[in-house]
Amino acid sequence: MNALANDEVGKYVSEHFVSSFQKVATFRIVGGQKQGGNVASYFCTPDSRVLHVVAGPVNAATMLRESRWVVEAYKLAELNGAGDPADLAEFVRRGHADRLRREHALDVAAPDVGLGRRALSNQGRVHLLLAAAPLVKVEQVYDLVFEKILGEQVSTSPVVEARQ
Amino acid sequence: MHRWLRLPCSSCGTGMIFSSRHAGRWRRCSGCQAPVHVPPLGKPVASAAPPTTRRGNSCWRIWAFGAVAAIVLAPGTWWLLHERERARREDRANQVVADQVAEARVQISRQRWDEAAALLQTALTTDKATNLDEARALLAHVRGEQAAIFFRSAESALANRRPTQAASLLRRYLADPHATERDRAVPLLQQLDLVTTDGEALAILHRLSYAALADFARNGTLAELESVTHPDVRAIHLERLRSCLEREIRRREEEHARRVQSIRATPAFGELQDFVALTRRRLAAQGGGEINYRLLARLFRELNVNGADEQRRLLGKLNRRPLDFGEAEKIARMRASLKERFRTYPEFDKTDREIFAWIVDQETNRLLQDLQGLPSGTPEPS
Q1: Mean model confidence pLDDT for chain B
Q2: Do residues B236 and B289 both lie within one domain?
Q3: Residue B293 and residue B274: Cα distance in Å, rounded?
Q4: Residue B84 falls inside a structural domain
Q5: What is the pTM of this model?
Q6: Would you state the pLDDT for residue B288?
Q7: ipTM score of complex
Q8: Which of B62, B84, B277, B352 is most buried (CB neighbours < 10 A)?
Protein backbone atom coordinates (compact mmCIF):
# COMPACT_ATOMS: atom_id res chain seq x y z
CA MET A 1 0.00 0.00 0.00
CA ASN A 2 2.98 2.30 -0.41
CA ALA A 3 1.33 4.81 -2.71
CA LEU A 4 4.37 7.01 -2.96
CA ALA A 5 6.38 4.09 -4.39
CA ASN A 6 4.06 4.10 -7.38
CA ASP A 7 5.73 5.57 -10.48
CA GLU A 8 2.72 7.51 -11.64
CA VAL A 9 2.09 8.99 -8.21
CA GLY A 10 5.75 9.79 -7.79
CA LYS A 11 5.88 11.50 -11.16
CA TYR A 12 2.76 13.57 -10.53
CA VAL A 13 3.79 14.60 -7.04
CA SER A 14 7.30 15.48 -8.14
CA GLU A 15 5.88 17.55 -10.97
CA HIS A 16 3.48 19.62 -8.86
CA PHE A 17 4.88 19.59 -5.32
CA VAL A 18 8.08 19.78 -3.32
CA SER A 19 8.01 16.71 -1.08
CA SER A 20 9.21 16.49 2.46
CA PHE A 21 8.91 13.98 5.27
CA GLN A 22 8.64 14.44 9.02
CA LYS A 23 8.41 11.68 11.59
CA VAL A 24 6.01 12.73 14.35
CA ALA A 25 5.57 9.38 16.15
CA THR A 26 7.42 6.14 16.64
CA PHE A 27 7.02 2.66 15.22
CA ARG A 28 9.01 -0.61 15.09
CA ILE A 29 10.78 -2.18 12.18
CA VAL A 30 10.80 -5.95 12.50
CA GLY A 31 12.55 -7.98 9.85
CA GLY A 32 12.55 -5.01 7.48
CA GLN A 33 8.76 -4.54 7.87
CA LYS A 34 7.25 -1.45 9.51
CA GLN A 35 4.99 -2.24 12.46
CA GLY A 36 2.63 0.27 14.07
CA GLY A 37 2.58 4.01 13.45
CA ASN A 38 0.51 5.84 10.88
CA VAL A 39 0.84 8.34 8.09
CA ALA A 40 -0.83 11.55 6.94
CA SER A 41 -0.07 13.33 3.67
CA TYR A 42 -0.38 17.13 3.69
CA PHE A 43 -0.77 19.21 0.52
CA CYS A 44 0.29 22.73 1.37
CA THR A 45 0.86 26.17 -0.14
CA PRO A 46 4.47 27.45 -0.23
CA ASP A 47 3.93 29.16 3.12
CA SER A 48 2.88 25.83 4.68
CA ARG A 49 -0.87 26.46 4.71
CA VAL A 50 -2.77 23.21 4.41
CA LEU A 51 -4.89 22.77 1.30
CA HIS A 52 -5.69 19.11 1.87
CA VAL A 53 -4.77 16.12 4.04
CA VAL A 54 -4.92 12.44 3.23
CA ALA A 55 -5.32 10.74 6.59
CA GLY A 56 -3.90 7.25 6.90
CA PRO A 57 -2.28 4.93 4.32
CA VAL A 58 -4.04 4.86 0.94
CA ASN A 59 -3.42 3.07 -2.32
CA ALA A 60 -1.75 4.70 -5.33
CA ALA A 61 -4.99 5.43 -7.14
CA THR A 62 -6.43 7.25 -4.13
CA MET A 63 -3.26 9.22 -3.59
CA LEU A 64 -3.16 10.19 -7.24
CA ARG A 65 -6.82 11.22 -7.19
CA GLU A 66 -6.39 13.34 -4.07
CA SER A 67 -3.23 14.96 -5.46
CA ARG A 68 -4.99 15.85 -8.65
CA TRP A 69 -7.94 17.28 -6.75
CA VAL A 70 -5.65 19.60 -4.81
CA VAL A 71 -3.81 20.78 -7.91
CA GLU A 72 -6.97 21.32 -9.90
CA ALA A 73 -8.75 23.05 -7.06
CA TYR A 74 -5.78 25.41 -6.55
CA LYS A 75 -5.62 26.20 -10.26
CA LEU A 76 -9.35 26.87 -10.28
CA ALA A 77 -8.94 29.21 -7.36
CA GLU A 78 -6.24 31.11 -9.23
CA LEU A 79 -8.43 31.19 -12.28
CA ASN A 80 -11.20 32.72 -10.15
CA GLY A 81 -8.78 35.42 -9.09
CA ALA A 82 -8.36 34.19 -5.52
CA GLY A 83 -5.00 35.92 -5.15
CA ASP A 84 -5.85 37.22 -1.69
CA PRO A 85 -5.31 34.59 1.07
CA ALA A 86 -8.78 35.24 2.42
CA ASP A 87 -10.31 34.50 -0.99
CA LEU A 88 -8.22 31.35 -1.38
CA ALA A 89 -9.29 30.22 2.09
CA GLU A 90 -12.94 30.67 1.16
CA PHE A 91 -12.34 28.69 -2.02
CA VAL A 92 -10.70 25.85 -0.08
CA ARG A 93 -13.53 25.87 2.45
CA ARG A 94 -16.11 25.52 -0.31
CA GLY A 95 -14.09 22.72 -1.93
CA HIS A 96 -14.03 20.64 1.24
CA ALA A 97 -17.66 21.40 1.98
CA ASP A 98 -18.55 20.22 -1.51
CA ARG A 99 -16.69 16.95 -1.02
CA LEU A 100 -18.35 16.45 2.35
CA ARG A 101 -21.72 16.77 0.72
CA ARG A 102 -20.94 14.55 -2.26
CA GLU A 103 -18.80 11.84 -0.68
CA HIS A 104 -19.95 11.84 2.94
CA ALA A 105 -23.54 13.05 2.61
CA LEU A 106 -22.96 15.89 5.07
CA ASP A 107 -24.38 19.27 4.20
CA VAL A 108 -22.41 21.87 6.10
CA ALA A 109 -24.99 24.51 5.19
CA ALA A 110 -27.69 22.59 7.05
CA PRO A 111 -28.64 24.20 10.35
CA ASP A 112 -27.84 21.09 12.41
CA VAL A 113 -24.66 20.20 10.36
CA GLY A 114 -25.78 16.56 10.18
CA LEU A 115 -26.36 16.07 13.85
CA GLY A 116 -27.43 12.57 14.72
CA ARG A 117 -25.77 11.12 11.63
CA ARG A 118 -23.41 8.19 11.95
CA ALA A 119 -19.77 9.04 12.49
CA LEU A 120 -17.72 10.29 9.57
CA SER A 121 -14.73 8.38 8.19
CA ASN A 122 -11.28 9.75 8.85
CA GLN A 123 -11.24 11.40 5.43
CA GLY A 124 -14.65 12.94 6.12
CA ARG A 125 -13.30 14.36 9.36
CA VAL A 126 -10.38 15.88 7.47
CA HIS A 127 -12.80 17.59 5.08
CA LEU A 128 -14.81 18.84 8.06
CA LEU A 129 -11.66 20.17 9.72
CA LEU A 130 -10.52 22.03 6.61
CA ALA A 131 -14.01 23.36 5.96
CA ALA A 132 -14.04 24.69 9.52
CA ALA A 133 -10.48 26.11 9.43
CA PRO A 134 -9.27 26.44 5.85
CA LEU A 135 -5.66 27.29 5.04
CA VAL A 136 -4.56 26.63 8.58
CA LYS A 137 -0.80 26.17 8.93
CA VAL A 138 0.52 22.61 9.02
CA GLU A 139 2.19 23.13 12.43
CA GLN A 140 -1.17 24.13 13.86
CA VAL A 141 -3.03 21.09 12.70
CA TYR A 142 -0.70 18.09 12.38
CA ASP A 143 -1.11 16.88 15.96
CA LEU A 144 -4.89 17.24 15.83
CA VAL A 145 -4.96 15.09 12.67
CA PHE A 146 -2.51 12.56 14.06
CA GLU A 147 -3.94 12.22 17.54
CA LYS A 148 -7.64 12.98 17.20
CA ILE A 149 -8.39 11.73 13.68
CA LEU A 150 -5.87 8.91 13.30
CA GLY A 151 -5.85 8.03 17.01
CA GLU A 152 -2.06 7.93 17.27
CA GLN A 153 0.25 9.58 19.77
CA VAL A 154 2.72 12.23 18.71
CA SER A 155 6.15 11.23 20.01
CA THR A 156 9.80 12.07 19.52
CA SER A 157 10.98 8.58 20.48
CA PRO A 158 13.33 6.99 17.88
CA VAL A 159 12.29 4.08 15.70
CA VAL A 160 13.04 0.71 17.26
CA GLU A 161 14.63 -1.77 14.84
CA ALA A 162 14.34 -5.40 15.90
CA ARG A 163 15.31 -8.70 14.30
CA GLN A 164 12.53 -11.18 13.65
CA MET B 1 12.68 53.89 180.45
CA HIS B 2 14.02 55.72 177.43
CA ARG B 3 14.87 59.32 177.39
CA TRP B 4 14.25 61.48 174.28
CA LEU B 5 16.79 63.65 172.60
CA ARG B 6 15.80 66.56 170.37
CA LEU B 7 18.30 67.49 167.60
CA PRO B 8 18.18 69.74 164.50
CA CYS B 9 19.48 68.41 161.16
CA SER B 10 22.86 69.90 160.38
CA SER B 11 21.86 70.14 156.69
CA CYS B 12 18.30 71.35 156.55
CA GLY B 13 17.70 72.30 160.16
CA THR B 14 14.66 70.09 160.49
CA GLY B 15 14.10 69.21 164.11
CA MET B 16 14.26 65.51 164.84
CA ILE B 17 13.59 63.47 168.00
CA PHE B 18 15.82 60.51 168.76
CA SER B 19 15.56 57.85 171.49
CA SER B 20 18.44 57.53 174.01
CA ARG B 21 19.16 54.04 172.71
CA HIS B 22 20.21 55.71 169.35
CA ALA B 23 22.93 57.63 171.20
CA GLY B 24 26.32 57.43 169.53
CA ARG B 25 24.82 56.18 166.23
CA TRP B 26 24.23 57.68 162.78
CA ARG B 27 20.62 58.26 161.58
CA ARG B 28 19.05 59.91 158.56
CA CYS B 29 17.23 63.21 158.56
CA SER B 30 13.52 62.75 157.90
CA GLY B 31 13.54 65.97 155.85
CA CYS B 32 16.62 65.85 153.65
CA GLN B 33 17.85 62.30 154.33
CA ALA B 34 21.25 63.68 155.26
CA PRO B 35 23.19 61.52 157.81
CA VAL B 36 22.83 62.83 161.33
CA HIS B 37 25.13 61.77 164.22
CA VAL B 38 23.30 61.23 167.50
CA PRO B 39 25.85 62.13 170.24
CA PRO B 40 26.63 59.59 172.99
CA LEU B 41 24.95 60.07 176.29
CA GLY B 42 26.76 62.44 178.71
CA LYS B 43 28.42 64.47 175.95
CA PRO B 44 27.28 68.02 175.21
CA VAL B 45 25.43 68.56 171.94
CA ALA B 46 26.77 71.23 169.58
CA SER B 47 24.37 74.03 169.00
CA ALA B 48 22.43 73.75 165.62
CA ALA B 49 22.05 76.38 162.91
CA PRO B 50 19.39 79.03 163.56
CA PRO B 51 16.14 77.04 163.28
CA THR B 52 14.01 80.01 162.53
CA THR B 53 15.56 80.60 159.07
CA ARG B 54 15.44 76.97 158.13
CA ARG B 55 11.78 76.69 158.99
CA GLY B 56 11.06 79.76 156.82
CA ASN B 57 12.82 78.29 153.79
CA SER B 58 10.95 75.04 154.04
CA CYS B 59 7.58 76.82 154.06
CA TRP B 60 8.47 78.82 151.05
CA ARG B 61 9.46 75.70 149.24
CA ILE B 62 6.20 74.02 150.07
CA TRP B 63 4.26 76.99 148.79
CA ALA B 64 6.32 77.12 145.64
CA PHE B 65 5.85 73.43 145.09
CA GLY B 66 2.11 73.77 145.53
CA ALA B 67 1.91 76.69 143.13
CA VAL B 68 3.90 74.84 140.45
CA ALA B 69 1.77 71.78 140.97
CA ALA B 70 -1.36 73.88 140.58
CA ILE B 71 -0.03 75.58 137.45
CA VAL B 72 1.00 72.26 135.85
CA LEU B 73 -1.85 70.08 136.94
CA ALA B 74 -4.75 72.34 136.06
CA PRO B 75 -4.03 72.59 132.29
CA GLY B 76 -2.98 68.94 132.23
CA THR B 77 -6.27 67.94 133.71
CA TRP B 78 -8.08 70.19 131.34
CA TRP B 79 -6.08 68.76 128.48
CA LEU B 80 -6.85 65.21 129.54
CA LEU B 81 -10.52 65.92 129.73
CA HIS B 82 -10.45 67.71 126.44
CA GLU B 83 -8.59 64.83 124.76
CA ARG B 84 -11.07 62.35 126.08
CA GLU B 85 -13.94 64.41 124.65
CA ARG B 86 -12.19 64.83 121.32
CA ALA B 87 -11.56 61.06 121.08
CA ARG B 88 -15.23 60.44 121.80
CA ARG B 89 -16.28 62.82 119.00
CA GLU B 90 -13.73 61.28 116.64
CA ASP B 91 -15.06 57.81 117.33
CA ARG B 92 -18.57 58.98 116.63
CA ALA B 93 -17.48 60.65 113.34
CA ASN B 94 -15.51 57.60 112.23
CA GLN B 95 -18.53 55.45 112.94
CA VAL B 96 -20.64 57.73 110.71
CA VAL B 97 -17.98 57.44 107.98
CA ALA B 98 -17.88 53.65 108.32
CA ASP B 99 -21.68 53.47 108.01
CA GLN B 100 -21.63 55.61 104.88
CA VAL B 101 -18.81 53.56 103.37
CA ALA B 102 -20.79 50.39 104.03
CA GLU B 103 -23.86 51.95 102.37
CA ALA B 104 -21.67 53.09 99.46
CA ARG B 105 -20.44 49.53 99.00
CA VAL B 106 -24.00 48.35 98.73
CA GLN B 107 -24.65 50.96 96.03
CA ILE B 108 -21.44 49.93 94.24
CA SER B 109 -22.56 46.31 94.23
CA ARG B 110 -25.73 47.53 92.48
CA GLN B 111 -23.57 49.61 90.13
CA ARG B 112 -25.32 52.80 91.26
CA TRP B 113 -22.20 54.87 90.96
CA ASP B 114 -23.74 58.32 91.43
CA GLU B 115 -25.39 57.37 94.72
CA ALA B 116 -22.20 55.71 95.91
CA ALA B 117 -20.17 58.81 94.98
CA ALA B 118 -22.59 61.09 96.82
CA LEU B 119 -22.41 58.95 99.97
CA LEU B 120 -18.63 58.83 99.86
CA GLN B 121 -18.35 62.56 99.33
CA THR B 122 -20.59 63.15 102.33
CA ALA B 123 -18.47 60.74 104.35
CA LEU B 124 -15.31 62.59 103.40
CA THR B 125 -16.76 65.90 104.58
CA THR B 126 -17.77 64.46 107.97
CA ASP B 127 -16.44 66.73 110.73
CA LYS B 128 -13.83 65.28 113.10
CA ALA B 129 -13.61 61.98 111.15
CA THR B 130 -10.09 60.63 110.81
CA ASN B 131 -10.50 57.16 109.21
CA LEU B 132 -11.07 58.46 105.70
CA ASP B 133 -8.55 56.38 103.74
CA GLU B 134 -11.05 53.69 102.79
CA ALA B 135 -13.64 56.26 101.75
CA ARG B 136 -11.05 58.09 99.64
CA ALA B 137 -9.91 54.87 97.92
CA LEU B 138 -13.49 53.84 97.29
CA LEU B 139 -14.39 57.24 95.88
CA ALA B 140 -11.42 57.05 93.50
CA HIS B 141 -12.65 53.63 92.39
CA VAL B 142 -16.19 54.95 91.88
CA ARG B 143 -14.91 57.94 89.91
CA GLY B 144 -12.87 55.56 87.75
CA GLU B 145 -15.95 53.44 87.14
CA GLN B 146 -18.04 56.51 86.32
CA ALA B 147 -15.44 57.50 83.75
CA ALA B 148 -15.25 53.95 82.40
CA ILE B 149 -18.97 54.11 81.66
CA PHE B 150 -18.18 56.69 78.96
CA PHE B 151 -15.58 54.42 77.45
CA ARG B 152 -17.86 51.40 77.48
CA SER B 153 -20.70 53.48 76.02
CA ALA B 154 -18.35 54.68 73.29
CA GLU B 155 -17.48 51.09 72.41
CA SER B 156 -21.14 50.20 72.40
CA ALA B 157 -21.88 53.15 70.10
CA LEU B 158 -19.13 51.94 67.75
CA ALA B 159 -20.63 48.47 67.68
CA ASN B 160 -23.97 50.06 66.78
CA ARG B 161 -22.28 52.12 64.01
CA ARG B 162 -22.82 55.52 65.68
CA PRO B 163 -19.40 57.11 65.16
CA THR B 164 -20.37 60.68 66.13
CA GLN B 165 -21.78 59.58 69.46
CA ALA B 166 -18.78 57.32 70.04
CA ALA B 167 -16.37 60.18 69.37
CA SER B 168 -18.26 62.48 71.73
CA LEU B 169 -18.24 59.85 74.51
CA LEU B 170 -14.54 59.20 74.02
CA ARG B 171 -13.81 62.92 74.32
CA ARG B 172 -15.80 63.08 77.55
CA TYR B 173 -13.92 60.04 78.82
CA LEU B 174 -10.55 61.57 78.04
CA ALA B 175 -11.57 64.83 79.71
CA ASP B 176 -12.29 62.95 82.92
CA PRO B 177 -9.27 63.02 85.29
CA HIS B 178 -10.21 59.56 86.57
CA ALA B 179 -9.96 57.93 83.13
CA THR B 180 -7.56 55.01 83.46
CA GLU B 181 -7.63 53.56 79.94
CA ARG B 182 -6.20 56.53 78.10
CA ASP B 183 -3.73 54.36 76.23
CA ARG B 184 -6.70 52.64 74.56
CA ALA B 185 -9.00 55.62 74.25
CA VAL B 186 -6.54 58.03 72.61
CA PRO B 187 -5.64 55.78 69.62
CA LEU B 188 -9.29 54.81 69.25
CA LEU B 189 -10.33 58.44 68.99
CA GLN B 190 -7.50 59.10 66.54
CA GLN B 191 -8.65 56.18 64.39
CA LEU B 192 -12.23 57.39 64.62
CA ASP B 193 -11.26 60.92 63.62
CA LEU B 194 -9.64 59.65 60.40
CA VAL B 195 -12.88 59.75 58.40
CA THR B 196 -15.71 61.61 60.06
CA THR B 197 -17.51 63.21 57.12
CA ASP B 198 -18.35 62.34 53.52
CA GLY B 199 -16.10 65.19 52.48
CA GLU B 200 -13.11 63.57 54.17
CA ALA B 201 -14.02 60.18 52.67
CA LEU B 202 -14.22 61.72 49.20
CA ALA B 203 -10.89 63.46 49.76
CA ILE B 204 -9.27 60.10 50.61
CA LEU B 205 -10.78 58.45 47.54
CA HIS B 206 -9.76 61.42 45.42
CA ARG B 207 -6.11 60.94 46.42
CA LEU B 208 -6.09 57.26 45.39
CA SER B 209 -4.53 56.10 42.17
CA TYR B 210 -6.79 54.36 39.65
CA ALA B 211 -5.25 51.02 40.59
CA ALA B 212 -5.77 51.61 44.32
CA LEU B 213 -9.37 52.73 43.73
CA ALA B 214 -10.09 49.66 41.62
CA ASP B 215 -8.52 47.51 44.31
CA PHE B 216 -10.70 49.15 46.95
CA ALA B 217 -13.83 48.68 44.84
CA ARG B 218 -12.99 45.03 44.26
CA ASN B 219 -11.54 43.88 47.59
CA GLY B 220 -12.35 46.64 50.08
CA THR B 221 -8.66 47.03 50.92
CA LEU B 222 -7.12 50.45 51.37
CA ALA B 223 -3.61 51.37 52.50
CA GLU B 224 -5.01 54.47 54.26
CA LEU B 225 -7.00 52.23 56.61
CA GLU B 226 -4.06 50.04 57.62
CA SER B 227 -3.56 52.13 60.76
CA VAL B 228 -7.17 51.50 61.80
CA THR B 229 -6.95 48.37 63.91
CA HIS B 230 -10.30 48.50 65.72
CA PRO B 231 -12.65 46.28 63.70
CA ASP B 232 -15.76 48.40 64.33
CA VAL B 233 -14.01 51.64 63.40
CA ARG B 234 -12.63 49.98 60.30
CA ALA B 235 -16.09 48.75 59.35
CA ILE B 236 -17.54 52.25 59.87
CA HIS B 237 -14.85 53.84 57.70
CA LEU B 238 -15.22 51.22 54.99
CA GLU B 239 -18.97 51.74 54.98
CA ARG B 240 -18.58 55.49 54.61
CA LEU B 241 -15.90 55.15 51.93
CA ARG B 242 -18.00 52.64 50.01
CA SER B 243 -20.98 54.95 50.12
CA CYS B 244 -18.79 57.62 48.50
CA LEU B 245 -17.13 55.27 46.03
CA GLU B 246 -19.76 55.58 43.33
CA ARG B 247 -19.57 59.39 43.43
CA GLU B 248 -15.80 59.26 43.10
CA ILE B 249 -15.96 56.78 40.22
CA ARG B 250 -18.53 58.98 38.43
CA ARG B 251 -16.33 62.02 38.97
CA ARG B 252 -13.32 60.19 37.57
CA GLU B 253 -15.30 58.88 34.61
CA GLU B 254 -16.40 62.40 33.75
CA GLU B 255 -12.88 63.68 34.14
CA HIS B 256 -11.52 60.76 32.14
CA ALA B 257 -14.03 61.39 29.35
CA ARG B 258 -13.02 65.05 29.23
CA ARG B 259 -9.36 64.11 29.04
CA VAL B 260 -9.91 61.41 26.39
CA GLN B 261 -11.86 63.91 24.31
CA SER B 262 -8.95 66.31 24.28
CA ILE B 263 -6.47 63.46 23.69
CA ARG B 264 -8.49 62.32 20.66
CA ALA B 265 -7.98 65.70 19.08
CA THR B 266 -4.18 65.30 19.00
CA PRO B 267 -2.18 64.28 15.91
CA ALA B 268 -0.56 61.46 17.91
CA PHE B 269 -3.94 59.84 18.50
CA GLY B 270 -4.83 60.17 14.80
CA GLU B 271 -1.56 58.52 13.90
CA LEU B 272 -2.31 55.66 16.29
CA GLN B 273 -5.68 55.07 14.65
CA ASP B 274 -4.18 55.08 11.15
CA PHE B 275 -1.42 52.71 12.20
CA VAL B 276 -3.85 50.27 13.79
CA ALA B 277 -6.18 50.30 10.79
CA LEU B 278 -3.37 49.79 8.27
CA THR B 279 -1.72 47.02 10.27
CA ARG B 280 -5.02 45.24 10.72
CA ARG B 281 -5.69 45.43 7.00
CA ARG B 282 -2.24 44.05 6.27
CA LEU B 283 -2.73 41.20 8.76
CA ALA B 284 -6.09 40.33 7.28
CA ALA B 285 -4.48 40.05 3.86
CA GLN B 286 -1.77 37.74 5.20
CA GLY B 287 -3.91 35.46 7.30
CA GLY B 288 -5.81 32.26 6.48
CA GLY B 289 -9.53 31.79 6.53
CA GLU B 290 -11.78 32.64 9.40
CA ILE B 291 -12.70 29.80 11.71
CA ASN B 292 -16.21 28.48 11.17
CA TYR B 293 -17.20 27.74 14.76
CA ARG B 294 -20.35 25.88 13.82
CA LEU B 295 -18.38 23.35 11.77
CA LEU B 296 -15.66 23.22 14.37
CA ALA B 297 -18.22 22.34 17.02
CA ARG B 298 -19.47 19.53 14.77
CA LEU B 299 -15.87 18.34 14.34
CA PHE B 300 -15.33 18.34 18.11
CA ARG B 301 -18.41 16.16 18.54
CA GLU B 302 -17.13 13.89 15.79
CA LEU B 303 -13.74 13.56 17.49
CA ASN B 304 -15.21 13.21 20.98
CA VAL B 305 -13.47 16.39 22.11
CA ASN B 306 -16.02 17.31 24.76
CA GLY B 307 -13.97 18.97 27.51
CA ALA B 308 -14.11 22.76 27.49
CA ASP B 309 -10.40 23.01 28.27
CA GLU B 310 -9.40 20.75 25.42
CA GLN B 311 -11.76 22.54 23.02
CA ARG B 312 -10.21 25.85 24.06
CA ARG B 313 -6.71 24.47 23.59
CA LEU B 314 -7.43 23.16 20.11
CA LEU B 315 -9.23 26.33 19.11
CA GLY B 316 -6.33 28.42 20.36
CA LYS B 317 -3.96 26.32 18.30
CA LEU B 318 -6.04 26.61 15.13
CA ASN B 319 -6.36 30.36 15.60
CA ARG B 320 -2.74 31.01 16.42
CA ARG B 321 -0.33 32.30 13.88
CA PRO B 322 3.45 32.15 14.21
CA LEU B 323 4.64 35.52 15.49
CA ASP B 324 5.78 37.78 12.68
CA PHE B 325 8.77 39.43 14.35
CA GLY B 326 8.94 42.15 11.72
CA GLU B 327 5.35 43.20 12.41
CA ALA B 328 5.83 42.87 16.17
CA GLU B 329 8.87 45.14 16.01
CA LYS B 330 6.98 47.71 13.96
CA ILE B 331 4.20 47.73 16.54
CA ALA B 332 6.63 48.07 19.45
CA ARG B 333 8.44 50.97 17.74
CA MET B 334 5.21 52.76 16.97
CA ARG B 335 4.08 52.32 20.58
CA ALA B 336 7.23 53.99 21.93
CA SER B 337 7.24 56.69 19.25
CA LEU B 338 3.62 57.72 19.87
CA LYS B 339 4.15 57.96 23.64
CA GLU B 340 7.27 60.04 23.08
CA ARG B 341 5.41 62.32 20.69
CA PHE B 342 2.59 62.86 23.16
CA ARG B 343 5.08 63.88 25.85
CA THR B 344 6.05 66.88 23.72
CA TYR B 345 2.53 68.37 23.93
CA PRO B 346 2.79 71.00 26.66
CA GLU B 347 -0.97 71.34 27.26
CA PHE B 348 -1.26 67.82 28.71
CA ASP B 349 -0.31 66.81 32.23
CA LYS B 350 0.95 63.54 33.72
CA THR B 351 -2.53 62.03 34.01
CA ASP B 352 -3.24 62.76 30.33
CA ARG B 353 0.05 61.13 29.39
CA GLU B 354 -0.87 58.07 31.45
CA ILE B 355 -4.28 57.84 29.77
CA PHE B 356 -2.72 58.19 26.33
CA ALA B 357 -0.12 55.53 27.16
CA TRP B 358 -2.91 53.27 28.36
CA ILE B 359 -4.86 53.75 25.11
CA VAL B 360 -1.75 53.08 23.03
CA ASP B 361 -0.95 49.95 25.06
CA GLN B 362 -4.50 48.66 24.70
CA GLU B 363 -4.56 49.13 20.94
CA THR B 364 -1.09 47.77 20.27
CA ASN B 365 -1.54 44.79 22.60
CA ARG B 366 -4.70 43.91 20.70
CA LEU B 367 -2.77 44.19 17.47
CA LEU B 368 -0.06 41.88 18.79
CA GLN B 369 -2.69 39.36 19.82
CA ASP B 370 -4.28 39.54 16.40
CA LEU B 371 -0.84 39.12 14.90
CA GLN B 372 -0.49 35.80 16.71
CA GLY B 373 -4.11 34.85 16.16
CA LEU B 374 -4.74 34.70 19.89
CA PRO B 375 -8.45 34.56 20.70
CA SER B 376 -9.02 38.12 21.94
CA GLY B 377 -12.75 38.46 22.06
CA THR B 378 -13.40 35.83 19.44
CA PRO B 379 -16.49 33.80 20.19
CA GLU B 380 -16.14 30.37 21.74
CA PRO B 381 -17.36 27.34 19.80
CA SER B 382 -20.82 26.26 20.86
Answers
A1: 85
A2: no
A3: 30
A4: no
A5: 0.46
A6: 62
A7: 0.88
A8: B352
